[in-house]
TrEMBL record:
The chain crosses the membrane at residues 9-26, 32-53. GO terms for biological process: ceramide biosynthetic process; endoplasmic reticulum organization. InterPro entries: Ser_palmitoyltrfase_ssu-like. It comes from the Eukaryota. It comes from Champsocephalus esox (pike icefish). It is found in: Endoplasmic reticulum membrane. GO terms for molecular function: serine C-palmitoyltransferase activity. Its main location: endoplasmic reticulum. GO terms for cellular component: endoplasmic reticulum membrane; serine palmitoyltransferase complex. It is a multi-pass membrane protein. Component of the serine palmitoyltransferase (SPT) complex, which is composed of SPTLC1, SPTLC2 or SPTLC3 and SPTSSA or SPTSSB. The heterodimer consisting of SPTLC1 and SPTLC2/SPTLC3 forms the catalytic core of the enzyme, while SPTSSA or SPTSSB subunits determine substrate specificity. SPT also interacts with ORMDL proteins, especially ORMDL3, which negatively regulate SPT activity in the presence of ceramides. This is Serine palmitoyltransferase small subunit B. Pathway: Lipid metabolism; sphingolipid metabolism; Sphingolipid metabolism. Pfam families: SPT_ssu-like (PF11779).
Length: 80
């Protein structure tokens, strides 16, 4: 794929984005505000999932391993 095809493909994707979200009818300053808010929300979702999902997965694994017969903790490990 050469550069011209890539540029046309990206322009087509951007056009599809404008049509799907309906922001093609907005003025340029409204588009920039909408895109800024959308970018901020997507960034916060990615950051939150990066920070909190591993914690919840670990807690869920500990919970379900205890329910479904995981290795019981020894009393010596609890004393230390």
């Amino acid at each position: 794929m050469n550069f011209k095809n890539l540029k046309e493909y990206l322009a087509w994707l951007y056009y599809q984005y404008l049509l799907i979200t309906g922001i093609y009818v907005l003025e340029p300053w409204e588009k920039s505000i909408f895109n800024s808010i959308l970018f901020s929300v997507i960034t916060m979702v990615i950051y939150t999932s990066y920070v909190f999902v591993p914690i919840h997965v670990r807690l869920a694994l500990e919970f379900f391993s205890g329910i479904f017969g995981g290795q019981p903790e020894s009393t010596m490990a609890l004393m230390n």
